[in-house]
Amino acid sequence: MSKKKTAEEYQKTFAFRFFRWLSGEKDPYSGEVEMQPQKEYRPDPEAALRREKEHDAIMDKVYDTEHNKWMHLFHRLYQTTSILFCLFLIALLLVTVSYLPAIGTVTRPVNNEVSERYIEKGLEETGAINIVAGMILDYRAFDTLGESHVLFVATITVLILLRLNKTEKDEAEVNDRRFEPKNDAILQLVATFLVPVIIIFGIYIILNGHLGPGGGFSGGAVIGAGLVLYLNAFGFKKTERFFTEKTYKWVCFFSLSFYCLAKSYSFYTGANQLHSVIPKGTPGTILSSGLILPLNIAVGLVVACTIYAFYAMFRKGGF
Amino acid sequence: MNFICNFPFFSILLSLFSGTICSVLPAKAAKIVNRVVIIVIGLMSAVLLLYLLSTGESFIYWMGHFPAPWGNEIRAGVLEAGMALFFCIIMYLSMAGGAHKLPGEVVESKHNLYYILVNLLLSSLLALVYTNDMFTAYVFVEINTISACGLIMIRQVGRTIEAAVRYMIMSLLGSGLLLFGLCIMYDLTGHLLMSNIKESVGLIMANGEYQIPLIVSVALMCIGLCIKSALFPFHAWLPDAYGYSTVSSAAILSSLVSKGYIFLLIKIIYRVIGFDIFNSTRIIDVLFVFGLMGMIFGSLSAIKENDIRRMIAFSSVAQIGYIYMGFGMGTQAGMVASIFHILSHAATKSLLFIAAIGLTDVSGGSRKFADLTGAAYRNKWAGAAFTVGSLSMVGIPLFSGFISKLLFAQAAVQVEGKMLASLIVLGISTVLNAVYFMKTVIRIYTSKADTPYTSITFRDRKAYTVTLVCFILLNIILGVSSQPVVDMIGQGLAMFA
Amino acid sequence: MGPNLFTNYGEAVSAILFCIGFTNLLLQTNLIKKIIGLNIMDSAIYLFLAEKGYIAGRVAPIVVNGVTSTERYINPIPSGLVLTGIVVSVSVTALMLSLTIRLYTRYHTLDLDEISTQLKKEGK
After folding, report:
1. Chain B 179-218, CB below 8 Å of chain C: which residues?
2. Rounded to an integer, what distance in angstroms lies between the CA atom of residue B87 and that of residue B126?
3. Model ipTM value
4. Do B180 and C48 touch (CB under 8 A)?
5. What is the pTM of this model?
6. Whole-angstrom distance, CA of residue B231 vs CA of residue B253
7. C106-122 pLDDT, tens per residue?
8. Which segments of B226-281 are extended strands (E)?
9. Which chains touch B (3 or more CB pairs under 8 A)?
10. B69 upstream amide cis, omega within 30 of 0
């Protein structure tokens, strides 16, 4: 027969806490986790009614399908012509495709001296084992420079559209707290394991951009995804300790400036037939292939920050 | 290699880099950087133009350590350098003319973003002008599109955002077609550099093996660029975008952005496909017809409009129709006329937008014609500038618009089969232009005794008035001494081949 | 009709997808559907480009054991173009989405025609 515990003693044991938790009476971490159920969204009924009325009025005016036969007819006509237009385009392009050179063959015009040289001399001239990386960051680097600025200008436009001023920001904060998950224990636990792995994997992809499949953009996207997961699990308060709009601004500034200056140097020396001092290194080692590795790092930083910035702007209009 | 040959590369990189720098600067410093960059690039382009005129030869500049067909290239000739110089002048004047309205139109904290957009727009225009590589052109077309969209919606009222959405949709359709055409072209020729593509295209046309896909790819690229430059049936986004965005944006968009795409199309016609091959296709007839339709319908919409800025915007549709009509003629003379019209329209349209803002300012901010009555007496310089712009648009001698109409008429006479149509439409369009522009001019010079609005004099807005005077001078210079410009265009086109 | 329609089935599929995306982007009135159309269109172009680079029996252009003979690897250029294209399409999609968010918060609808009607009603 086992020893009988007093009620007070029993309350201190693990079993007591466990069964209480199991029956849903008490939370074992009470005080540490906010376990409030999500508040129901209660819209302002008057505003909603007004909005609905306006919407109906407009719908009546625009798509008064019951009383407006012409509208009905137009709708039908619109749909039919859309489909016909699509079919016409498909027919046109299919005819074009049927005349194109057959795929998978060596004799088609794309397999000419250009791709031959990239493959045969790419390793020697750029030092990159990944020929595609060598091509986009050395042979055709001007395109890639433009491409990173496309990303930059897109973030600027998103900032213009969605960045909020002070008063709107507080409101957005409240909305964000209300609608987004907060302190979800399962998500947090999983994120603790996953986020470091994801970010390290992203760094690996960036650093190996010239040695294998990967590169700045893909690696940056992976890191960005890791940051977004971290943000979702732990909320803006935690991320804002190390990542604010200022961080974003300066990281982007330094990466893009480095990119611009490094490539300007290489274009300038190339065009003026000067000797470039940047060493190529031994192919296959991590510190090789001249500018490709640092450029990949710069692109990776920009992309990671941009993806995080897009998410933060979409969700709250600021970070 | 002469050091001056580096200038195209410096201009593109400088404007790209200044965009990045502006992102960390406060608004005032960003403004200064923006102005300085435009001036420096303008000076470099001027020096380059003089250098090219003296040598009489275009040159290729490697972007990297590898020659064609492996590396990336840019190319500069008289036409490119001249365009770059002209774009810088117009951009500087547009920025200066709209600067005093900016604080009221854009939130204070977003001013430096505005300058970033302008810098990147300039860099993409320069890259479009100088590039010798089709894929680079595609990438910079995208930068151009996105930053133009930013310029439209930076003034955040409902209309501009809706216009920005419509603009983006149209532009994206255009980019999609351009990219698809580009891919087919790459598949057929195996090259991305313009000069190499042209060689292969010549071989294809001689062999006759891949002719059908080649024509389709050319057509796709042309339609893509037409959509992007708001040729007649694709202009739905244009009036709202130009009519409600900030003044500088409207001036820059109407005079530069669409011209960048048109210049790219010219480059494609000459440097990728070849002028003769392009003219032997049916595409030019399509361009011709749409150009004519644009000339008439654009003007008709402008006559119906009761809002001065939307009226000017609709007039752009008509003017772009003129340019495409010139392409459609399929002769060297038509091309020269079109290129001259690009210059003259850019100079005039930005002048009209900037002058219109001066007139609406003294009419209580209203753009309706009823309120504008007598506005030219309240703001004399803006009234004078608007009159000059209108006269030039209508085609009165002394101003640039007259020369372009003259060139179009001369070109039309030489083309059999298209002569009658182009001359008739040219006549109708001129009359229509006169109707709505002269209506406005008469309206702003009708004196009104009991006006509730205060007037603005030279002392109140020095920078703005000086800008207007520069614009007027630019118009008169283009109109009076047109022969050197026309010669230069001819020389530049000869260098293209 | 040319001789290669069935050999080029990959390109044919991408052409069909391109047209579907194009029509969606042009003619749908719902903004989100338009954006989906845009992405279909862009992806179709990347598929088209990827088909261009392919050569039967060869491997991806990453040098293995220092072998740099053209017999072994596929054409690297289209892969590079696709990379650039993807970045552009990501940027454009982000911009379109933020424009949509902005319009939705203001007008509570995703229908572009409805938004135009509301704007006309506002009369500004």
Report:
1. 179-180, 183, 186-187, 192, 212
2. 8
3. 0.95
4. yes
5. 0.90
6. 14
7. 888 888 888 888 888 77
8. none
9. A, C
10. yes
